[in-house]
Amino acid sequence: MNSPYTVLVIGPAQYMETAMNIPNGVVDRMTRRLATVLIRQSDQVVVDALRPVAAPQYAEPVESD
Q1: Which of 3, 13, 26, 63 could make an SS bond with 41 (beta carbons 3.0 to 4.6 A apart)?
Q2: Cis (ω within 30 of 0) for the bond into 4?
Q3: Full-prediction pTM beyond 0.70?
């Protein structure tokens, strides 16, 4: 795989950015290896590649109380 790398995450943008910036986390480790990290928040992520969900092999429905 050649750079640049793109990571798309789904979740509240501010929480995701905070998680990426935790001490000894993704950004910290990458910058120590002289990589440049750019975090860009977006209101929308498009998922354009999907695969069918397999039928559960062991899961069974549970009746609610």
Answers
A1: 13
A2: yes
A3: no
